[in-house]
UniProtKB/TrEMBL annotation:
GO molecular function annotation: serine-type endopeptidase activity
Entry keyword annotation includes Hydrolase: yes
Similarity-based family: Belongs to the peptidase S8 family.
Keywords, comma-separated and alphabetical: Hydrolase, Protease, Serine protease, Signal
Coiled coil location: none
Signal peptide: 1-31
Gene3D superfamilies: Peptidase S8/S53 domain
GO biological process, one term: proteolysis
Active site: 178 (charge relay system), 234 (charge relay system), 399 (charge relay system)
Domain named Peptidase S8/S53: residues: 171-433
SUPFAM superfamilies to which the protein is assigned, alphabetical: Subtilisin-like (SSF52743)
Protein known as: Peptidase S8 and S53 subtilisin kexin sedolisin
C-alpha cells in the first residue's frame, strides 16, 4: 500500500471521496494575486473555473488476477454503463456509472472479493501561469549561475555545465506528462521523439495498442494528435525548459541541448486532467522502456491533485522500470507536510518533489514547502520558454521549477548511463546549494545546482 506523509490520512482502498488541490495559477484560488503574478496578466493562462474534484460518473477499479470484468463479477448490474482498460493487457479499468450514483457503486464494489481497490477518477491541474513574451537568451536567468555571463547567482548554473562540455544526449528520453506539446515548434521539432516502430500509416505497427503513436500519444481523446493550439501552452513551455534546442540562432535554450522528449497528453482543453488518463500516460512511458527498449530516464509531472491508489501504483511501476518521477510541489502557498499535493507527496524512491524560488533566491508566497516532503527548490518565477504558435512566453509556477529538475536529471543521465532512479534522486539532492529561503522548509534546504551535479561521480 502507498506510504503517504504521516500527517496525511492514507486514502481508503474503497469508497472515499477526496477533495482535489486546485492551483493552476501561482497563488491559492481566491487569493489576491501576488506581485509575482500581476492580476491583469492572468488571462494568458488562468485556472479554469469550477474544476470538479472528480470526473462525474467515473470510477477507477483494479480487479484481482484472472477476474473477468463484467457487471456480474463487479456486482454493479445496470450501474455499469461502460468499462475501459487503462493499459493494454492491464487489470486497471475506468468504469462509467450514472452521474450521482458513484458512492453507491463504490459501496457495492467494496463488498466484492474480485476487486483489489476502487476509487473516484480525480482531477489534476497544471501548476504554472503565463505572463509576457520574450525570446532573448540573456533573460534566461534560470539557466545561468554565479560564474556565467550573464550571471545570475540563484540560477541553476546549467550554462556552467555546458561550458565543461555537458550538453545532453539524444540517447536520453524524457516523458512529458502534461498538456500536448507543439511538436513542430522551431525550438522543439528536433527534440521530440519519433517512434521508429510505428510510422503514421493507420496501423499499430509496434502492437502496443496505440495506432500511429509516432511522436507520443493524446490520452484525452485516444489519438495521435498532440497539439491543438492554446490549450497546449503549458506542456510546450515545460518541454522547452527541459530541452529546447540551443545554438540555433533563435528563441531559448533548454537545460539539455540534446534530448528526446516524449509528449503524453493527459491535461485536456478543459484545463485539467484525470487519474485514468494520467495512469495510462505513465504506463505508456513505462511500457516503452520495459518492452520497447526506449531509454526513458525521467517523467516530468508539473501538475497536482488528490491521492490515488492507481496513480501510486503507476508511479511505483515506473520506479521498478528505472524511471525517475519529478513532481510539482504545488502552488497553494501551504505547508505540504500538513496539506500534501499529489503525486509529489508520494513516499516512493523515484519521486522528487520540487518547489520554486525567484531570481533573488526568495520563496514566492504561492509556492508549497515542506521540511519533510518537498525535496528542493528551483527557478520558478519569470521563466521564459517555448509556447504554442511557435512563440515564447514567461511563466511562474512550481511547474517550471519541476521542469528544471527534470532537465537536470536528464543531463546527469547522459553521462551516467543506467543510473537508477534512487541514485539519480540522491545525486540531485546531494548537489544542492544551501539557500536561506529553503532552510527548514525543504528536505535539503537547498536549490538545484546543475553545475555541481555534473561534478559528481
Amino acid at each position: 500500500m502507498p506510504k503517504f506523509p504521516k500527517s496525511a490520512s492514507r486514502p481508503l482502498a474503497l469508497a472515499v471521496t477526496l477533495s482535489v488541490l486546485l492551483a493552476a495559477c501561482s497563488q491559492p484560488q481566491g487569493a489576491t494575486p501576488t506581485s509575482a503574478l500581476p492580476a491583469d496578466d492572468l488571462g494568458l493562462w488562468a485556472a479554469p473555473a469550477n474544476v470538479p474534484a472528480d470526473v462525474p460518473g467515473e470510477l477507477i477499479v483494479k480487479v484481482r488476477a484472472r477476474t473477468p470484468l463484467n457487471a456480474q463479477t463487479l456486482g454493479l448490474g445496470a450501474l455499469l454503463l461502460r468499462a475501459e482498460r487503462l493499459t493494454p493487457g492491464g487489470d486497471v479499468y475506468r468504469l462509467t456509472v450514472p452521474s450521482g450514483r458513484e458512492a453507491q457503486a463504490l459501496h457495492t464494489l467494496s463488498a466484492r472479493g474480485t476487486v483489489a481497490y476502487a476509487e473516484r477518477n480525480h482531477t489534476y491541474t497544471p501548476q504554472g501561469a503565463y505572463i509576457v513574451n520574450d525570446t532573448f537568451y540573456s533573460t534566461l536567468w534560470g539557466l545561468q549561475g554565479s560564474t556565467t555571463q550573464p550571471a545570475s547567482p540563484y540560477g541553476t548554473g546549467a550554462a556552467a555545465a555546458w561550458a565543461r562540455g555537458y550538453t545532453g544526449s539524444a540517447s536520453v528520453y524524457v516523458g512529458v506528462v502534461d498538456t500536448g506539446v507543439q511538436i513542430d515548434h522551431p525550438d522543439l521539432a528536433a527534440q521530440v521523439w519519433t517512434n521508429p516502430a510505428d510510422p503514421a500509416d493507420g496501423v499499430d505497427n509496434d502492437g502496443n495498442g496505440y495506432v500511429d503513436d509516432t511522436r507520443g500519444w493524446n490520452f484525452t481523446d485516444g489519438s495521435s494528435a498532440l497539439y491543438t493550439g492554446n490549450a497546449d501552452k503549458h506542456g510546450t513551455h515545460v518541454a522547452g525548459i527541459i530541452g529546447a534546442r540551443a545554438n540555433n540562432a533563435q528563441g531559448v535554450a533548454g537545460v539539455n541541448w540534446a534530448v528526446n522528449l516524449i509528449p503524453t497528453k493527459f491535461l485536456g482543453t478543459s484545463g485539467y486532467g484525470d487519474t485514468a488518463n494520467a495512469v495510462s500516460a505513465i504506463a505508456y512511458l513505462t511500457d516503452l522502456k520495459v518492452n520497447r527498449g526506449v531509454n526513458v530516464v525521467a517523467i516530468n509531472s508539473s501538475w497536482s491533485g488528490a491521492p490515488s491508489q492507481a496513480l501510486y501504483d503507476a508511479i511505483s511501476a515506473a520506479n521498478d522500470a528505472g524511471i525517475l518521477f519529478v513532481a510539482s510541489a504545488g502552488n497553494n502557498g501551504v505547508n505540504a507536510d500538513a496539506q500534501p499535493a499529489y503525486p509529489a507527496a508520494y513516499d516512493l524512491p523515484n519521486v522528487v518533489s520540487v518547489t520554486a524560488i525567484d531570481k533573488a533566491g526568495a520563496l514566492p508566497s504561492w509556492a508549497n514547502t515542506g521540511a519533510g516532503s518537498v525535496d528542493l527548490g528551483a527557478p520558478g518565477v519569470s521563466i521564459r520558454s517555448t509556447v504554442n504558435g511557435s512563440t515564447y512566453a514567461t511563466a511562474d509556477g512550481t511547474s517550471m521549477a519541476t521542469a528544471f529538475v527534470t532537465g537536470a536529471a536528464a543531463l546527469y543521465a547522459s553521462t551516467h548511463p543506467g543510473v537508477s532512479p534512487s541514485a539519480l534522486k540522491a545525486a540531485l539532492l546531494a548537489s544542492v546549494t544551501p539557500t536561506a529561503s529553503l532552510q527548514g522548509r525543504t528536505v535539503t534546504g537547498g536549490r538545484l545546482d546543475v553545475a555541481r551535479l555534473m561534478t559528481l561521480p
